[in-house]
Amino acid sequence: MNAFDYAVPQSPDSALAEIAKATGSSRFIAGGTNLIDLMKENVLRVGKLVDINHLGLDGIESNDAGGLTLGALARNADTAYHPVVRERYPLLSAAILAGASPQIRNMASNGGNLLQRTRCLYFYDTATPCNKRQPGSGCSAIGGLTRQHAILGASEHCIATHSSDMCVALAALGAVVRVQSAAGPRHIAFADFHRLPGEQPEVDTTLQPGELITHIELPPADRFKGHSAYLKLRDRASYAFALVSVAAALDVGEDGLVRAVRVALGGVAHKPWRDPVAEAMLVGQPATEAGFQSVADSLLQGARGQGVNDFKIPMARRAIVRALSVAVQGTVVQQEHIEGESA
Ligand code: SF4
Predict the structure, then answer these.
(1) Candidates 126, 132, 155: which one to mutate for ligand 1, based on the most atoms within 8 Å of Cβ?
(2) Which of the listed residues 118, 158, 199, 270 should we mutate to test ligand 1's pocket, taking the one with most ligand atoms within 8 A of CB?
(3) Is the CB–ligand 1 distance for residue 120 below 6 Å?
(4) Structure pTM?
């Protein structure tokens, strides 16, 4: 790890001023659960770290729109176990608790979760070419080890996946990211926050230089709280990234017809994968397996594996149907919730 400058501002404005006056590469740091790894492995050489842990952005509060505002610096564990999140957004709570380990969830911030980098092995191996780490150097994953890699939205320059669980639920819930810069505040729809690799795989998000994530806005989602499920399929039962994950939520009327549905996929693309056109196919229809199959077929249109990871396409299809089938039966309170209360 190289030497770097370090600042500890006490307000968002002073944090933005510290970043603005930095010369060379600079980063905000909160929990540091991914950033410090990147620095230790020399994937990232930072000239200045601006510690944002004292900006007062760690609250979780109801908002005027009837939803919930998550502070960017609230910890993942505090968010997952917050009583309002558990009561009104069980999908988000379940997704967070499916990710990482308890120790990491205690440190990791909500804003940092959105900004975590891919876990592509070659990205962390500085002896191999990687367009995301060093633009124009090539992609070592193509033709290499691709078990974890994308089946949707990849490009010839990068086939990496986004590894967050929390973000899959936020995509399904239609969250909005609030950011602040010297130019003022800005709101970014969650669907527009992460980007596909295209010709610029080194750029993960639409966040602009000098912008600070301050909050994540959750719209009201009470219609979904009784019928949601987060299904994560991975190589081992804990502390592993998703091969495929599904955040599913349904609003089913007393007549048995679907009034609204949300489905987002994780582990399959450079960003959480959601398609409102696929979701619309189920609206007004009975909540049956045949309908869920149609949603899965539509969501996976154009899916293409790399050979090694071709298995993810049928796996994703079955996972979508399974998650919707579980959701329609009723939201299950995760066992981790109970363990968390007694810990
Ligand atoms: Fe790098 Fe993306 Fe290729 Fe992985 S998939 S080696 S992150 S360019």
Answers:
(1) 132
(2) 158
(3) yes
(4) 0.96
Asked if residue 80 is part of any domain, the answer here is no
Cα 31 to Cα 311: distance, rounded to the nearest angstrom: 35
The secondary structure of residue 44, as a DSSP letter, is -
Residue-wise pLDDT for 209-264, tens only, equals 999 999 999 999 999 999 999 999 999 998 999 999 999 999 999 999 999 999 99
Query: 141: Cβ below 6 Å to ligand 1?
Result: yes
**Domain CATH for 31:** 3.30.43.10
Domain ranges, residue 296: 229-329
Residue-level pLDDT at 282: 98
Q: Does the C-beta of 123 come closer than 6 Å to ligand 1?
A: yes
CA of 227 from ligand 1 middle (Å) equals 36
Identify whether 157 is part of a domain: no
Boundary of a domain, candidates 37, 53, 69: 53
Q: Mapping DSSP to helix (H, G, I), strand (E, B) and coil, where does residue 322 land? A: helix
Q: How many domains does the chain have?
A: 2
Give the pLDDT confidence of 266-314 residue by residue, as tens digits: 999 999 999 999 999 999 999 999 999 999 999 999 999 999 999 999 9
Q: What is the Cα–Cα distance from 95 to 232, expressed in whole angstroms?
A: 8
Residue 9 placed within a domain: yes
| Rounded CA separation 225/61 (Å) | 18
